[in-house]
Specification:
globular; single chain; 7-stranded antiparallel β-sheet; alpha+beta
Length: about 210
């Protein structure tokens, strides 16, 4: 692939994340309905491998290998069977560097979440871009990190689940999940893992 200039490179990175607002105050709030219906892939998984490719062209990326513990949407092979592992790539932050011609390239911070080896998460991922990259819906909003303590598994995203059920109505859910909405609207902080997965199943089937 032909080398890209700095301005074009920035456009390529932004285009790869076009459906995802950047982190901080510019992030558009995503409800659980938005996450579940717009995600191409939803899974509960454990990170097995992290490989950073800093010199990739046209953009650096991090490749992740996850064990699929539970597939809620997508995560199927050509034979339509649920995959046992899934590999995907997120665009990586670019470190400041000096090129051979003396031009200094500034660091580029995109706010794309990262995962640690051994970490268990529930992910809501976009489809792959033409560069082979994907990202979580709403960036940090689409990554729910699982914590286990005293036999209880809970999870929350990096926004503490704030606004996760805002604007939703009982019609967004199927089955008995609709009866929980009033209580969930005021939720801030962790939610029990199995309860959350139950809510996701009632949305991800669409």
């Amino acid at each position: 692939m032909k080398a890209l200039g700095p301005r074009i490179l920035l456009c390529v990175v932004v285009a790869s994340l076009a459906s995802q607002p950047l982190s901080g105050g510019l992030v558009r709030q995503c409800s659980l309905t938005t996450l579940a219906t717009r995600a191409t892939t939803i899974l509960r998984g454990r990170c097995l491998r992290v490989t950073a490719v800093r010199d990739a062209t046209p953009v650096p990326y991090i490749e992740y290998t996850f064990a699929v513990l539970e597939a809620l949407k997508g995560c199927r092979g050509d034979d339509d069977k649920v995959l046992t592992t899934i590999v995907f790539r997120h665009v990586s932050d670019r470190l400041a560097q000096e090129r051979p011609d003396g031009f200094r390239v500034a660091a580029l911070r995109l706010g794309v979440p990262r995962y640690r080896k051994g970490e268990e998460v529930v992910l809501f991922l976009t489809g792959e871009s033409h560069l082979g990259l994907c990202s979580p819906l709403g960036l940090a909003q689409g990554v729910f990190r699982v914590h286990r303590q005293d036999g209880l598994a809970t999870l929350k995203n990096d926004c503490a689940n704030r606004g996760l059920f805002s604007g939703m109505t009982s019609k967004d859910f199927s089955g008995d999940a609709s009866g929980e909405l009033q209580q969930l609207r005021s939720l801030v902080g962790p939610i029990e893992l199995q309860r959350f997965l139950h809510l996701c199943r009632s949305l991800a089937v669409r």
